[in-house]
Amino acid sequence: MCGIVGYIGKAQAFPVLIKGLHRLEYRGYDSAGVALINDRGSLNIYKAKGKVEELELAVEEQDITGSVGIAHTRWATHGEPSTRNAHPHCSRSERLALVHNGIIENYESLRKELILKGYGFRSDTDTEVLVQLIDDVLTSTGTDLFAAVRTALQRVTGAYAIAVIDKQNPKQIVAARKGSPLVVGISNDALYLASDATPIAEYTSDIIYLDNEQVALLEEGQQPIVSTLKGEQVTYTIRHTDIAVGQLEKNGFEHYMLKEIFEQPDTLQQAMQGCMSAAGDIQMPDWDRCKQRFLNADRILLTACGTSWHAALIAKYAIEQFAHIPCEVEYASEFRYRQPVIKDRDVMIAISQSGETADTLAAIELAKQNGAFIYSICNVQGSSIPRLSDACCYTHIGPEIGVASTKAFTAQVLVLNMLALAIGKENGHLSLKQYTSLTNEMRRLPQYITTILLQNERIAKAARTLTFAADALYLGRGFLYPIALEGALKLKEISYIHAEGYPAAEMKHGPIALVSHDLPVVVVAPKDSLYDKMVSNIREITARHGRVIAVVTEGDTQVRDISELTMTVPPTADCWYPILTIIPLQLLAYHVAVAKDCNVDQPRNLAKSVTVE
Ligand code: AGP
């Protein structure tokens, strides 16, 4: 999950490249580097371990001139985070520099072959093998860089998004992708390359989304040329990204994550609008093309990873309750390898904020091969998952920069519940009265969230009591069991406190042994249909001196009186409580991480988009 940026044009490349790396740093941040060809034809490569700011320090007093360059911010797969393993990697001939996002799976056999040809290697990376392979083709055949890259990539298995520059052809960049995303930006005086549109959006909205096994030649003053690996020229579509530059700034918030938590009244409204007709009815995107497939489905498979998988779990509860269609929720990484039984009357709902998660892509491929209809819920326009799907519902919430997903999750839950209501209304399992009541309540959610956010300061103070906790338990039932999982994931991924989510009733089957006076137990206990049972579970905790932190419905006194801290949400319908109750848990995790001085937007070992398996 690295970030790649490239520039070729009339201006100086370095400022565009370094700003682009900052915009892509959420994709990986354990080392960074840049390669530039200056006007005298010299190839200058600079690299640094750590964040992009370390690279900026490393290039002070260096020659960073030149109007063509490539840059990279890394999430290490092969080779530890270090300057030696940082990209760009240089060829033996000293004429090529290459950056790469992905994994070359046959790099060891290629490396052995190159060593026999006299090549040496300075790093432990698979990427260095690739640049030497291209170098070998270039120098042994005398062909041009565009052709050499195509020839070399035909010998490669695995995933890649690459950019290559050649000091002997300083007016061009060659790029290619397979399995990892890569886009080309076109403006009047320059061509851009990036892992996604965010670093390009401030220069142009004209974007080409490269497809798998496509190779692009970017030459100054020319329109890009795109071909297949075999060299057949490809006609491409120029799409227009809707990213506004303001969406990429923190706008006064200390972290992107906090900004994105506070955006949720607006982003929920945006996601809702994307699934409503002018008359105010639910109208899912591509509904005419997918309605019958949902109505005739024997089963709905929901697949995703991480936070998106938690949204899938909530969707299972909603679809089975409102539309009465059997649902199975699958971790994409497990589904793709376990020889699942897939029928052509199955519908797969694939959920992904980034649209690039490798395991989810693979699960879709497998389902598609077996005739299933693919409906995806995604946030990034033009990303790989929507392009692989038969139909797609975009959430329209703007870029989510914080690695810990917040606004994307609430938008996913909203549109999945809307889908469940739409199917239930169509197949008659949901009465018009129920449908109307639930959609009326849905329209109040943004204002409910605004109310919840007013507790931010109080939650910040209370979060300090968790700062020294080594472990935490999160408990919920029904629609709120997935919220217990999601709340636990938020805490552990940004504060590094071990946290586990459990179905509350499951405690008696083992986990209650963990309860002691210094174990915080976060309970999600709004006044829903399982409230009384939840209160019993909470009393099992307090009877054993567990510390209870509770999310409750406004006005609740029963749970409040047995809890150390309560955070409140307005009363609503069971299926909408997940969207409300996750907000205090997002804030709790955020403030604990800040109190622990953790890097909230770029937690250790993580990346925003997991494009490798
Ligand atoms: C959640 O906070 C994490 N960022 C991670 O679990 C994420 O949800 C997961 O990697 C799936 O990403 P996607 O939605 O882009 O496919």
Task: Characterize this entry briefly.
By secondary structure, this protein is of the alpha/beta class. It is built from 19 helices and 25 strands. The chain folds into three domains: 3-246, Glutamine Phosphoribosylpyrophosphate, subunit 1, domain 1 (4-Layer Sandwich); 250-443, Rossmann fold, CATH 3.40.50.10490; 454-613, Rossmann fold (3-Layer(aba) Sandwich), CATH 3.40.50.
Task: List its salient traits.
Rossmann fold, eight-stranded antiparallel sheet, 613 residues, 25 strands, binds 2-deoxy-2-amino glucitol-6-phosphate, single chain, alpha/beta
Cα radius of gyration in angstroms: 25 Å
Shape: globular
What is the CATH architecture descriptor of the largest domain? 4-Layer Sandwich
Q: Biggest sheet: strands, sense, closure?
A: 8 strands, antiparallel
Helix content: 25-40%
Q: For this structure, what is the CATH class of the largest domain?
A: Alpha Beta
Number of domains: 3
CATH topology of the largest domain: Glutamine Phosphoribosylpyrophosphate, subunit 1, domain 1
**Number of DSSP strands?**
25
The total count of helices amounts to 19
Structural class: alpha/beta
Q: CATH homologous superfamily of the largest domain? A: Aminohydrolase, N-terminal nucleophile (Ntn) domain
Mean pLDDT over the full residue set = 94
Q: In order across it, which strands form the biggest sheet?
A: 3-2-4-1-10-9-11-15
Query: β content, as a range?
Result: 15-25%
Stretches with pLDDT under 50, minimum 5 residues:
none
Instruction: Enumerate the distinct ligands.
Output: 2-deoxy-2-amino glucitol-6-phosphate
The termini sit apart by 10 Å
